Amino acid sequence: MNTTGKTSLAVAAASVALLSACAGQSGTAAPSAPASAAVRSLSPSASSSAPSVAPSTPAAPQAASGPVGCKSADLGVALNPDQGGGGMNKTRFTLAFTNKGTVECTLQGSPGVSFVTGDNGAQVGAPATREADGGPVVPLAPGATATSTLSITNAGVFDPAECKPADVRGLRVYPPGETAAVFVPHDQQTCSGADKSTMVVGQVTG
């Protein structure tokens, strides 16, 4: 074989080897994903995100408004004869509560009443018996007056040994719902026995 023929065979063999190498590389290499597809796979779906809603705060309840119970310091208390009641052994009076304050207040129930030896004196005998608890709420505008009945049994109708008569100078009156008393002058004789009540007091009415 001449030199030209050898050279042609070598070139042909090299071409076949190069084609085989390219074919092998194209069969094993995996195609790369486009860059835009990779970006889309990392973005959250619009339908999966929910808007944030701030929790609502309930409104604070408003304080109830209206008249409050009458205070002893704002009341004038007087003891007046009741011409429509009483008898030989009992004397009937009316306790009058007048609002001396500047705002409306309320009274409900029966006052507390007891005999005392003076303005700041000691209590004498048992306190008045209340006719009933509760009762209507009585609104008392400034300058207005509400009343309560007070019946006092004469000390002379009781056995002196049990009654133990004693002279008193007035009444200690506690308006309904109050712990501060008002002194009301009233001279008379009553029973000093601790278990002998000579008074009955009614509910406050308008």
TrEMBL record:
Q: Where is the signal peptide?
A: 1-23
Species this chain originates from: Umezawaea tangerina
Q: Does the keyword Signal apply?
A: yes
| Native organism taxonomy | Bacteria, Bacillati, Actinomycetota, Actinomycetes, Pseudonocardiales
Q: Which PROSITE patterns match?
A: PROKAR_LIPOPROTEIN (PS51257)
Q: What is this protein called?
A: Uncharacterized protein DUF4232
**Keywords annotated in UniProt:** Signal
Show where the DUF4232 domain sits: 70-204
Start and end residues of each stretch annotated as Disordered: 43-67
